[in-house]
Write a structure and sequence with these properties.
Length: about 260
């Protein structure tokens, strides 16, 4: 895993946007895996800017979102389809038919999970997956204890996640208890991952994910097994990393061999 330490949220968003922009330019029909939450909002704002100011073309881009709450009404402002429309899809020239968010209102949730995995396979797999991390170490809604081989599945949310996400709802009681989420096994199949983390409240989770043992208790730690993940972590979230100096040293010296990579 390549770990890039950045000053703050702005720089994290910039670095991530640089990677996504390059992927779209290099392959206009790239398949992107997208995340929701406050972490990637800045990234999406920068992609919108790249579209408006530099003509970044999304017309052939295909997207799959990581997860969705079970049973929120389709127009609910905290639904993840709504989030993606608000933060990205409505502001770029993407074809809505090429955008996919799991259907948390499906009559048969288990068939919806299988269907979602099939759709990803039919699209040729995810080429670049955007990820954040929860305080309990989850990526997507893969809560502690989820199999590291899991495909798209239905999960109960932990109390911690419900509490964290209640800031977006009127009260914690309004936060859905269940979600549909791509699994750790699904995420590990993405060709490349961008993992982003920001803020001091993520420092313990980042430490466990990047430097702890690989364990289903911290599902983000499975990324240590992924062959091509770049972690972009701001100073506050990186504060507890043991290898912080090494990551910085590596970063500072990288340019010397960059033209041979
Ligand atoms: P956040 O959520 O980006 O809103 O902090 C991240 C997550 O729970 O995965």
């Amino acid at each position: 895993m390549q770990v890039i330490i950045v000053t703050d949220y702005e720089e994290m968003s910039d670095r991530a946007a640089g990677i996504v922009t390059e992927a779209v330019r290099r392959k206009p029909d790239v398949v992107l895996g997208l995340a929701t939450g406050s972490t990637p909002e800045g990234l999406y704002a920068k992609l919108v800017q790249a579209h408006k100011e530099d003509g970044l073309d999304f017309s052939r881009v295909v997207t799959f979102n990581l997860d969705e709450y079970v049973d929120l009404p389709p127009d609910h402002p905290q639904g993840y389809r709504y989030f993606m429309n608000e933060h990205l899809f409505n502001h770029v020239n993407i074809d809505v038919a090429n955008t996919h968010v799991p259907d948390g209102r499906a009559e048969c949730l288990s068939s919806q999970c299988e269907r979602y995995e099939q759709m990803i396979r039919d699209a040729g797999g995810i080429e670049l997956q955007v990820l954040g991390i929860g305080r309990d170490g989850h990526v997507a809604f893969n809560e502690p204890g989820t199999s590291l081989g899991s495909g798209t599945h239905i999960t109960a949310l932990t109390r911690e996640t419900i509490e964290d996400n209640s800031r977006f709802f009127d009260s914690p009681d309004d936060v859905p208890r269940f979600a549909i989420t791509m699994g750790i096994g699904s995420i590990l199949q993405a060709r490349r991952c961008i993992f982003m983390a920001t803020g001091a409240n993520k420092a313990d989770a980042v430490k466990a994910a990047l430097e702890g043992p690989v364990t289903a208790t911290v599902t983000a730690s499975a990324l240590q097994m992924h062959p091509d993940t770049v972690a972009i972590v701001d100073e506050a979230a990186a504060a507890k990393l043991d290898l912080l100096d090494f990551y910085r040293w590596q970063q500072d010296n990288w340019d010397r061999i960059a033209d041979r990579l």
